[in-house]
Each structure stands twice: as C-alpha cells, then as structure tokens.
Amino acid sequence: MSIVTVQLGQCGNQIGFEVFDTLFSDSHSSQGLCSKKENEAYQASCKERFFREEENGVPIARAVLVDMEPKVINQTLSKAARSGQWKYGEHACFCQKQGSGNNWAYGYSVHGPRNEESIMNLIQKEVEKCDSLSGFFIIMSIAGGTGSGLGAFITQNLQDQYSNSLRMNQIIWPYGTGEVIVQNYNSILTLSHLYRSSDALLVHENDAVHKICAKLMNIKQISFSDINQVLAHQLGSVFQPTYSEEGSFHYRRNPLGDLMENLVPHPEFKMLGIRNIPQMSENSLAYSTFTWAGLLKHLRQMLISNAKMEEGIDWQVRPPISGLPALGKMSLKKELRFNTSIANLVILRGKEVQSADLEGFKDPALYTSWLEPDTAFNVWKTQRAFNRYEKSAALVSNSQFLIRPLDMIVGKAWNMFASKAYIHQYTKFGIEEEDFLDSFTLLEQVVSSYSNI
Amino acid sequence: MGRRRRRVDSEAGAGAWTLPEVIAALSRSLPAGPSPEIFRRAKFDRPEAAPALWRLLFQVLAPLPAYGPSTLPAPAADPAHTVALTPPTFVRLRPRGSGHVLLQGPACRGSGTAHPGRHWPCSTLRLHPWRLHPLPPHRSPGSEAQARLVKAVLRSQGYPRPVLAQLPEDGSQGSRELLLALSWLLAREPLIERLLVQARVQLGDQVPEFKGAEWTRGCPLLPLQGEALASCGPPTSHMGAQVPTDLRYVQWLMGKLWFRWRHLISSQQEQCALLGKIHLYTRGCHSDQDLGHLSVTETEMLRDPEGGQQLLRALGWENARLKAALEWRRWELVFWRWMDTVPGICPPDGPAAASQPPVLPRIPEPGLGELERVAQEMQALHEELQEATATRRVAWEAQVGGPGRGPQWSAVRRASQEAVEQELAALRRSWEQGRGPAPPQGHRLVRREGSSARAHGLRAAELTGPLREQEARLQAALRQLQGQCQQELARLAAALPGLICILPPGR
To answer: What sequence ranges are listed for the domain Tubulin/FtsZ GTPase (chain A) (predicted)?
Structure first.
C-alpha cells in the first residue's frame, strides 16, 4: 500500500527530498547483508510504497510539492533530477510567486482557500496513481508561515476528503532560540489544528538533531542539508520495509497503519518522538561494530531519561519502584526525571536480529498503569540492514518526551498573548482571539493528559 | 425429541445397506466425521469415543472458514466501484516489479479483445478465496474451548437434556450423550445440506453477503470464529467484584478498532479495483459467452497449474461429500431405527436430575438489582394498562349499548376485523421492507459493458440502492444517538456547578 507525501514550504520540501533520496539509495544499496532475492523483495516493497514507475523512466516519487515561492521547489526538483536515479513528477508541484511572511493566519485563511482546489487536485492525481492508498505523510514546520498555516489547512482538507486514509504529520519543532518572533503563536495554532485533523504527529526537534550533527557526526559547519539527512535517516529506519510477523517472511504491507494502531489509537495522545541508535559519520561507520545488547541498553536508557542521543545519557534515572507513585505526577516545575511511556515501537534491522533480547522494554514500570506491556510494546525485526549500518535500532515512542518543549512553547505564547502582542497580524486575516484561546485550551489539555498518565 | 417419520421403504430388504455403511455415509457427508466404530462405542457410552464426537459437534456447530470461500461483509457503497453496466474506463496496466506472469491460457475466444501478452499485477495472488488453508494450529481453539462452545450452542438452541450441560469439558466422557445430541440436530433441520451450502467451492467471484439487516436488529447466534475462542481464557462463570477498567484503556481499544476498520475499508477498495482490472483484461477469454470474462479463481487456475490441481481436489472432496449426503438420505431410516434403541439403554434420569431447573446463565450481582427494578416497572406498567383498558372497555360498552345483535352488528364487526387485518398486513409489510432486500445468495459477479439488458441476473444498482437507503437510516440513527449523548453530557456537566467541562477534541 502506498504513501503519498505532501511536502510543504521550505522545510518540508528540503526534508522531503532527503527522505526520498535516503529511501531510494538504501533500497538500492548492495550492503544489505542479505540474499539477492531478499534484497529484491525489499526493493520492490520500498518502491511500491514510495515510488511509482513510468515506462522507460526512472522511478518517480509519490509526492506533491507545495510552496508559496518558487525558489526552493525548483532547487528540490533539480537536485532530484540531477541524481539520475529518481525524480519528482513533472506536474507534481504547486507554487506561487509570493511568500506569506511567516504569518500563520495568511497561510491558513488566504493561501489555503485560494489555492485549495489546485492543491487538492494535484494530490488527487497522485492518489489515483496508487493501486491502494495507505495514507499521507505531510512534512511541514510548525513555526513558519507557509508550512504551518497552509499545512494545517491542507491536513484538514485531507481529513474531509480522504477520511478513511491515514494522516501522519512529520512536524519540525523549531529551535528554542528561533529567529521568528511569532513562532510560538504559529506553533500553538498549528499544533492545535493538527491535533484535531491528524492521526499522528511525529515530532522532529531541530535542537536535538543539531546536537546529533555536532556531537555524533562531528560536523563542524552544520548546514540544513546535514540536519535533513539525519532526519531522513531516522525516518527511513522506521518506514523502510519490515517483516510482518515473527517468522513470516513477507514485508509488511501497511506499516503506517500498523504503527498507528500500536501507538496512537487514543485520541488524546498523538505525539510521537523518534530515537535512533547508532548514529555516526560515514567515516566512523567502517570502524565500528556493535552488539544488540549494548545498543538496546542505550536505547532503553535514552527512552527512560528522555535523552536525545546516545551520548551524554543520564544513567541515574531509574524506573520507579512499583507501589510508589510514578514520578511523572510531579508538577512540571521540577525536573521531570523519569519518562513514562504510553506505548513504544522498536524497529531492529541488521545482522543476527533474531537474537536481540528486548525484555528490558517489557518492564511494566516503564509504562502507564492502564496498559499492559504486552499491548504497549511492539517490536519489528528485519534482517536486511539499513543504510549501511550493520545493526540499527529505531524507537518510535508515545511518551512524555514532549511535555517540556510543548509546555515551554505554550508558556511563551501565552505570555505574548496576555499582552496582545502581534495579535493584529492574525485578526487581520480572520484568526480571532477565540481561536487562540481554543488552541491554548486544547494544548493545556494535552500537556495535562500526558502529565497524568 | 422428535424426528421425521418416513414411509417404510418397501424394498428395504433388497440391496439394503447395513448400519455401518449408512453411518459411514453419514460420516462422509459431515466435516470431521468419525468412523462407524466410534458411533457404536458411543451407544455404550465408551469414553474413547468422546473426543471424536466433541470434535464433530464443534465442526458442525461452529463451522470455521478453514475450507471453502470466505465471504466479506458488504463493501461501502461507493459509486466508483459498482461493477455492472458502467462503461469501462481504460486503465493502464503498468508492468510490475518481480511479480508479473505471462498469461498462457487456452486461446481466448471472442471478439479479438484477447491480450496474450498481458502482465498481471502480482497482487492478484491475494484474491483467491478458495485456497485450502486449514487454520494454523495456534489459531484453532483447544478442546476445552471447543467443548464449552458446543455446550453453549446446544443450550441456546434448546437442547432438552440436562445431562449434556454436566459433562466435563476435558472431552473425556459423554459419548452417548453426544450421540444423542448429534441425532437431535440431524432431526431438527437439514443439517448436512446446510453445511454443504456453506462450504461450497466457488468458481466465480461472489457478490458479498450483506449482513446489514441482521446487524441492525441484534445478531442471531453467529458462529464464533476460531480466533475469538482461542483468546477465551479459563471460564469465568461468575463475575466477582468487578475491577474498574480505566476509561483510557477503553478509548485505546476503540481507537484500535477504528484503525482496523479503516484498513479493512482500504483493503476492500483495493480488492474491488483489482477485481475490476481482472474482469476488464480477461474479456473474451471465457468459453461461456454469457459471462464473457474470467473470475479470479479461473484466472488463478490458468496462471498457476499447481493451484488448479488444488481446486480440482477441492471439487473432488465436495463431490464425495455430496454423494455421501445422497446415500445418507436414501438409507437414513436404518440409522434412525438404530438410534431408537439408544435412549432405551440410558440410565433413567434420577429424581435429582429431573428436578434440576434448566441451567441459566448467571447474572452478575449488580445486574440482578437492575433486572428486579425493570421487572417491577414492567409490572406497574402492566397494571396501569389493564386499568386503562378496563375503563375504555366499560366506556365503549356503554356507548354501544351492550353486546350487539343482529346483522348490522355482525357487519360492523366484520368491517372492523378487516380493518385490523389490513393494518396488521401493512405493519408487516413495512417491517419486511425495513429489513431490506433478501440477501442474494450465490450470485456471481460479472462485468458487462454498455446497457445491454439481460433477462436473468441482478444489476448492481438494484443492490446498491437499498444499501444506500440503509446507510442513510443508520447514519440518521447514529446522529440521533450522538445527539442523545451530547445532551446527557451537557446535563451531567450542568449538574455540577462551578465545574468547567472541556470536551476532548472531536474527530
């Protein structure tokens, strides 16, 4: 079953390109550490999901590119075409001549309705070329103008028009010290709207990825391209083909549906975080070996202590002893030490994957009281290695990862809102104070739900 | 226990079958039928005969879709996927990756629309409904669960003997009782014929069964699927202190159900699309001009000779069962005569057994209180009604002036009787209509071009029309129920002053 990706704004388009590039080059890599037949099945599965074929041509990504200015889209299109390996569809992009000046309301209330028909038509054409549609990826930032406002509008339209298809928004969480003064307003408006119309919000934090680039990949001058490649690697390790069940050797047909069913069936808990191990520069890769035991021990501690990467993990954090109240119920003012999970999905790829022992993740102390670890924890194991890593593990987690960042954004936005700063830019285009209040209410509720699990 | 009586066959003597032969025929016509020796042992209540009979009854009462076609619930009525009579749109078939196979069937007759060089999408592999897959071992329920199901179903169908309910569930005893139960089932209805119809091997693509009508007014007993049974834990015959379930867990489960439902819908849409493609591309390939194109089963047969062999085997087995059923019908009197001797050797029911009340399912404690309250309310209502009718009757009689006499009175009476009957008939008709059309059985799905009217067969539009009406009715009912829930929530929220209730973000 296929996934159609909608790339929105500068952020969405640049990341989208890296994602498709990583998916393609991994599926055609010769270092899969598996048989030729296995490799071909992997390739075919990846292709069905993300690419389509036209006669006598290179594979075409199942994507729609949307931006309000042409520059980034043209760059993206040409980069893809230059590779000679794959490309975007010729008529798969939509752009206008002017930007939206980081104004969420302009994106949502003006750009959206004005261009609704054209954009939805493009998406419809892409959907028609799928034999069967699993769902949509929508890649966007939440703090900018185009990506965020327009993205919220489009996700809502997708919900109305394709109500039976799944929608996962890949959202880019802004830097804490961002440059856009109204980024917090944009963020809370986007998040609250997406919470109502999306099925899952997979959050990528710029700060975290930046640190990974600096510390793990040893990149001195970190460009957006580096950040996006790390992001693409994380996404690829989740969404490349995986086996369906223990012992069966068919690739899963509906990974998006399976993932969502395992992680986000509850309507109040939709925020997902992603952790990946190991991550390193290509140069170091050749000289490193890993054991599953070591990798999984680190991954588990990353989960518990809410670490973003495998360096600098706080090993002091321990699961609460059963019988004592969970530490998560403390007020947010204190350091939220232990990260309680609602549900976790671990995806393992590589050599000797069957021997990996995941008992540590089935500890009931890691989870809430109302879900058994059997239900809350799932693992997908695949032999075929990913992106030249001999062994790699990804964790998609529905847990308290994002309470702090969310709370910070809501707090800052509230402070600004209390003094009515910059509100006129929004009310000018139809976003009233009521809408702000609704957003605050919804997000406070989300924070509260997550704090009290 | 009643049984059908037949005229004694006058030529019972000449060429008649012996009892073992007749029982063997019966066994052959049933799924998992045991040998005649088992039957003989069961008459004498031998324990070694019990497991085979438990298994047989289980297969008979809860037929698992292990062999034969699986039927899907009705797909969402979607105009893009009605098959009959829409002009076909040209669909480009792209060569697929590693899964395509050249069609090398017999030369396709017809108007030259055959395409010998077509490549088939490998996803057709997922469409064969008749593949013979016995359920994998971890999915068929254990013998205890089987025994429990057999007892439950027999009880709900009204099996009169209490001995059955008391048999141990480990399957070690009770072969005579099971034999009696089997013959009770055979006598009540044409059991074998019903099972054969359910297990038919289908060559064409079937119109899905529409279970809609039954779902709206509470399902009759549906055969439980193996998976549901396999997940039955140890029997909880009584509800102790109810452990309060966290609402969030219930919401979690609802969400999972919702995702699975959406997945089902997309799979069905995919199946429809592929079915359409196959029908389109095999135009002109079928030897029966009336049908015009191949079904999935027939296409699979051409693509995969090995699979064709399996189909042949399935047809062969079906034939054998049909033959056995015919033989059974011819000679079953022999069996019934023998069965007549079985109750005679049962130990007489002790006074304790006779006085035992029928086993009722135990009602959990809080439920009992509710039921009593409801019973009281009904009693009060009944008394009220009786009073009301009494007063009305008195008033009417006073009006009429006593029981009427004479031709004028009888004419009035006849008229009112007719009026009542008409109203009753009208009510019945509207109820029948509300049920929707009788589900079509055994129709084969065929794609037709143009608007050529055929004498026989059903048009898809005739089926989709009532389905849409039913959908609209169900939507209206859903909206009404949702409205009621909203009102209830609002009422609860208002009842607690000073409390602000924030509803979760709705879909």
So the answer is: 47-247
Contacts of A153 (CB under 8 A, 6+ apart): A107, A108, A111, A112, A113, A116
Locus of tokens 């055969």: B223
Q: Pull the structure tokens for residue B344.
A: 């005679």
- Strands A2-8 and A166-173, by their bridges, are unpaired
- Report ipTM (2 d.p.): 0.90
Say how far apart CA B25 and CA B328 lie, in whole Å: 6
Amino acid identity of residue A314, one-letter, is D
| Tokens representing residue B414 in the block | 């006849």
User: Within 10 Å of residue B192's Cβ, how many Cβ atoms?
Assistant: 21
Q: How confident is the model at residue A334 (pLDDT cuts 50, 70, 90)?
A: very low
Strand-strand pairing, A391-399 and A377-382: unpaired
**Contact criterion met (CB < 8 Å) for B121 and A131:** yes
Cα of B251 to nearest chain A Cα, Å? 6
- Whether B13 contacts B326, CB under 8 Å: no
Rounded Cα–Cα distance for residues A134 and B262 (Å): 10
Please state, in angstroms and rounded to a whole number, the distance separating the CA atoms of residues B305 and A363. 51
Model pTM greater than 0.95?
no
Per residue in B280-296, pLDDT tens? 888 877 777 777 777 87
Tokens 């059991």 identify what position? Answer: B191
Contacts of A375 in chain B (CB under 8 A): 252
> In the structure encoding, which two tokens stand for residue B24, read together?
């063997």
Q: Give the range among A380-394, B227-241, B338-352, B421-435 with minimum mean pLDDT.
A: B227-241
In this model, does residue B204 exceed pLDDT 70? Answer: yes
Query: Which of B94, B121, B274 shows the shortest C-beta gap to A53?
Result: B94
Closest C-alpha to A90, from A106, A109, A104, A74: A74
CB spacing of B270 vs A132 below 8 angstroms: yes
CB B506 within 8 A of CB B482: no
Amino acid at B284: G
Q: How many of the other CB atoms lie within 10 Å of CB of A390?
A: 17
Identify the bridge partners of residue A204 per DSSP, sorted by sequence position. Answer: A172
Return the closest-CA partner of residue A137 out of A267, A292, A20, A297.
A20
- B265 contact residues in A (CB cutoff 8 A): 164
Asked whether the predicted pLDDT for residue B438 surpasses 60, the reply is: no
Average pLDDT, chain A: 89
Q: Whose CA is closest to A97, among A115, A78, A77, A109? A: A115
Distance CA B345, CA B179 (A): 13
Tell me which amino acid residue B382 is.
H
Judged by a CB distance cut-off of 8 A, whether residue B138 touches chain A is no
pLDDT at A141: 92
Residue A104 and residue A9 in contact, taking contact as beta carbons nearer than 8 Å: no
CB spacing of A48 vs B97 below 8 angstroms: yes
Q: How confident is the model at residue B243 (pLDDT cuts 50, 70, 90)?
A: low
Reported as type and span, the H/E element at residue B490 is: helix B460-495
pLDDT on residue A101: 66
Q: How many CB atoms lie within 10 A of CB A61?
A: 26
CA–CA separation, A420 and A426 (whole Å)? 11
pLDDT at A407: 93
CB atoms inside a 10 Å sphere around CB B324: 20
Q: Phi and psi dihedrals of B365, rounded to 5?
A: -50, -55
Q: What is the DSSP letter of A394?
A: E
* Contact assignment for B259 to A265 by CB distance below 8 Å: yes
Q: How many other C-beta atoms can be found within 10 angstroms of the C-beta atom of residue B173? A: 17
Give yes or no for a contact between B93 and B276, defined as CB atoms under 8 angstroms apart. no
Residue B500 C-alpha, separation from nearest chain A C-alpha, in angstroms: 12
**Residue B261 burial by CB count (10 A; 0-12/13-18/19+): exposed, middle or buried?**
exposed
Say what percent of chain B tops pLDDT 70: 63
Q: Are A176 and A408 spatial neighbours (Cβ–Cβ below 8 Å)?
A: yes
